[in-house]
Specification:
heterodimer, A: Aldehyde Dehydrogenase, Chain A, domain 2, 2 domains, 7-stranded mixed beta sheet, 20 strands, B: alpha/beta, TIM Barrel, 8-stranded parallel beta sheet
Chain lengths: 488, 308
């Protein structure tokens, strides 16, 4: 036996680095604002750097739009709306949207690489999830453009006008697609502001939109910080605001829009419960828990950040989770084998560290994967907090990082109560072999999305959105179209 | 003795820890293994490891001493053009060919595995299965590949299946026992998991997917389900059980996917031919072709690789 042991100990099969090539992408040193079909210098003359969070290297400089620039963009969008876009037939609009989708597909690899460089998410996710899904949103809504009277039978459908759209840094290209595609399909024109840490794929999208020959002003991309977003929200000539981001900013926007004629949809934070019953397919549930919280480093509004596990299987599930944590590859997002990439920004990493400190002070058991973390760049090892109480801060507040809290429950009612006992209501997961229990829970969980025996699945046809402080309005599917039309 | 045995088995056969398996979730997990990028040194190492895990197999009615002898030579001399290659793990033959095979490989590390228990159907009385097994062992088999009674399993007679495996294990003596579940006939992953747990509890040293005579044979889904049974058993008891997917694995790329799966479920401890085998015959040449591509930079014609 001793001899056998030796052979075993000698064996360690680690995967050689397998980095995705960056040779084929083209990035400009400096990006201006895309307004009225042209690249326009910011009136302030100010630019800010956007960096690679995995290496902290500057990728490009990006224009900082102020009120004046936003005013230009809104004026261009208004002009394009009244003079061109609202006069086109749905079928004509569809042609443009299909063209955008196809060109994105053709340049999918380039988009994936830039998304990973700029945002820190793994190339596997950008390549297999973000970019294909973004393309599919354009394809899907292109299909609706000439069928609006079938989408809303017996109603006359009108576009809203100019839509101001502000998107977050966690799924930069995908969120741009979620916002732009239904707006264009319904006949609106757009002023979109990407997040300050991840503007590059939206600017690449502007290049594609330009190459597609979309009439000038139909889509305008303005980059900047919170003040740029505020300028869009407060602009008199914007008919609709769509915002995806934090609940705190969502509240500010809702106050700003109150008393105006602007339509509003908000897709905000979450603290979603992933509920595992004793009869669940345990190994698949463990995968679902991992995917639920560590997908995109936990930078997911609907992340399954609260695990509720039935007491009879809690020890087993926790043991398996710890085990699985150590087989996750954490590190260079550009390596095709990396499972967990870089935290999007220094600020976000500090926020996550703050919550981890709070968790430690709250005296719960912490477990982190034994992975080695690159010396440079912003990284956080996958983290579990075990035996946490409902009254704990780390259970109540959104961390937006790779941190999972684990609570146990005894009965179905207790699970429902704990899952709903939060100001948020974005998503939930239910793991059980029992079909009837799934249906019981879907009616009782206050969440916009409930996944059964899976987690973090997104389709263009499926509406997505929240309850309570997770926002209102739906994106995706027919419901997503509803947010961009007037029914008369 | 019979009664005593049964009472014992009822005590030991405890399926309360056997979880249900969700096929959709398993498929998703498999996709992740398949999307691993194995390049450079890790590929070189993986290809050699896979080669060293093969049970080179011939299980045909038309098998002859000549055929078996040539296969045994190949087992020890995979591609002598290349110096530093490992041998395969074992040759796998019918009981009647064990003595011939054993004689051929006696001066090497290559083991002789024999199928038994009225392979492949297992439709024979218990005493025949026992004699079949004892004969193979007495002829020199290092390993016994038995089949379970799938009919009994499918009508829920789990104790029968358990007892049969336990009895064959006893008949094996020092030979290691591989238990073939014939997953292609068990139909669901829930059944695969239950059968895996029964085989492990009854004393299997290895669990094996298929005879190669039924389609589908080994799939990654089925193998993953069995690996998780092995893992749960190991976590509970500290006892390692081996795994052998058999049939349907013919390319180097597939083999690397399997190795990735083992590496990321059971860990690298299982990445030796003591704990993991491929039941395959055409896989060896594809691995050799890939190894030669790595060594020389040129993808060579299949005409340069011997078919035995």
């Amino acid at each position: 036996m001793a001899a056998k042991k030796k052979i075993i100990d000698n064996l360690d099969w680690s995967y050689s680095p397998s980095p995705e090539s960056t040779a084929h992408i083209q990035l400009k040193e400096r990006y201006d604002l895309y307004i009225n079909g042209k690249w326009v210098k910011p009136s302030s003359g100010k630019y800010f750097p956007t960096t690679n969070p995995a290496t902290e290297e500057v990728l490009a400089e990006v224009a900082h739009a102020n009120e004046k620039d936003v005013d230009l963009a809104v004026a261009a969008a208004r002009k394009a709306y009244t003079e061109v876009w609202s006069k086109l037939s749905g079928a004509e609009r569809a042609k443009y949207i299909y063209r955008i989708a196809r060109m994105m597909q053709e340049r999918a690899r380039e988009f994936a690489v830039i998304e990973t460089l700029d945002g820190g998410k793994t190339i596997r996710e950008s390549r297999d999830i973000d970019v294909p899904l973004a393309c599919n949103h354009f394809f899907y809504y292109a299909g609706w453009a000439d069928k609006l009277e079938y989408a809303f039978p017996n109603r006359k459908v009108e576009a809203l006008g100019v839509a101001g759209q502000i998107i977050p840094w966690n799924f930069p290209l995908l969120m741009a697609a979620w916002k732009i595609a239904p707006a264009l399909a319904a006949g609106n024109t757009v002023v979109l502001k990407p997040a300050e840490t991840t503007p590059l794929t939206a600017l690449k999208l502007a290049e594609i939109i330009h190459d597609c020959g979309l009439p000038p002003g139909v889509v305008n991309i303005v980059t900047g910080f919170g003040d740029t977003g505020a300028a869009i929200v407060n602009h008199q000539d914007v008919d609709k605001i769509a915002f995806t981001g934090s609940t705190a900013v969502g509240k500010i926007i809702q106050k700003a829009v109150a008393g105006t004629n602007k339509k509003l949809t908000l897709e905000l934070g979450g603290k979603s419960a992933n509920i595992v019953f004793e009869d669940a397919p345990i190994d698949q549930a463990v995968e679902g828990i991992i995917n639920g919280i560590f997908f995109n480093q936990g930078h997911v509004c609907c992340a399954g950040s609260r695990l509720l596990v039935q007491e009879s299987v809690a020890d087993l599930v926790i043991r398996k989770l710890k085990d699985r944590l150590n087989t996750l590859y954490v590190g260079d997002p550009m390596d095709k084998n990396t499972d967990v990439g870089a935290i999007n920004s220094k600020e976000q990493l500090e926020t996550i560290h703050k919550f981890i400190e709070i968790g430690k002070q709250e005296g719960t058991e912490m477990y982190q994967s034994a992975c080695s973390i690159p010396a440079k760049g912003h990284f956080c090892p996958p983290t579990l907090f075990i035996n946490v109480a409902q009254s704990s801060v780390i259970v109540q507040q959104e961390i937006f990082g790779p941190v999972l809290t684990i609570q146990t429950f005894r009965t179905v009612d207790e699970a429902i109560q704990k899952a709903n006992n939060t100001p948020f209501g974005l998503a939930a997961g239910v793991w059980t072999d029992k079909g009837s229990r799934i249906f019981n829970l879907t009616t009782k969980l206050n969440a916009g999305v409930v996944w059964a025996n899976t987690y973090n699945k997104f389709y263009p046809t499926s509406p997505f959105g929240g309850y309570k402080e997770s926002g209102f309005g739906r994106e995706g599917g027919l419901h997503g179209l509803n947010a961009y039309v007037k029914l008369v | 003795m019979g009664k005593e045995k049964k009472a014992q088995s009822e005590q030991l056969l405890d399926l309360r820890n056997t979880p249900v398996v969700d096929k959709v979730g398993v498929e998703e997990r498999i996709e992740r293994f398949q999307s691993r990028s194995i390049k450079g040194e890790s590929k070189k190492q993986g290809l050699r490891m896979a080669l060293n895990m093969i049970d080179l197999t011939t299980l045909e009615g038309k098998d002859t001493p000549g055929k078996v002898k040539q296969m045994c030579y190949k087992a020890m001399h995979l591609h002598d053009v290349q110096q530093d290659l490992p041998t395969v793990a074992a040759v796998c033959v019918y009981p009647s060919m064990v003595k011939i095979a054993k004689n051929e490989v006696k001066n090497s590390n290559v083991k002789v595995a024999s199928v038994s228990t009225a392979f492949p159907s297992g439709q024979a009385p218990m005493d025949v299965k026992l004699r079949d097994t004892k004969f193979a062992v007495s002829e020199g088999a290092d390993e016994i590949d038995m089949v379970i009674s799938r009919g009994k399993f499918l009508i829920g007679e789990y104790n029968f299946v358990y007892d049969e495996i336990a009895a064959i294990k006893e008949a094996c003596g020092k030979a290691r026992l591989k238990v073939i579940l014939e997953t292609g006939e068990l139909a669901t992953l829930d059944n695969v998991r239950r059968a895996s747990d029964i085989a492990i509890m009854a004393g299997a040293d290895f669990i094996k997917t298929s005879t190669g005579k039924v389609q589908p044979a080994a799939t990654m889904q089925v193998t993953y389900t069995m690996l998780m049974a092995i893992k749960d058993h190991y976590d509970r008891t500290g006892i390692m059980i081996g795994m052998k997917p058999a049939g349907g694995i013919s390319t180097a790329k597939q083999a690397l996917h399997y190795l990735v799966m083992v590496n990321e479920t059971l860990g690298s401890k299982w990445l030796t031919n003591e704990w993991f085998r491929f039941g395959a015959s055409s896989l060896a040449n594809d691995l050799l072709m890939q190894i030669m591509k790595q060594e020389t930079g040129i993808y060579q014609s299949s005409a340069y690789f011997s078919i035995d």
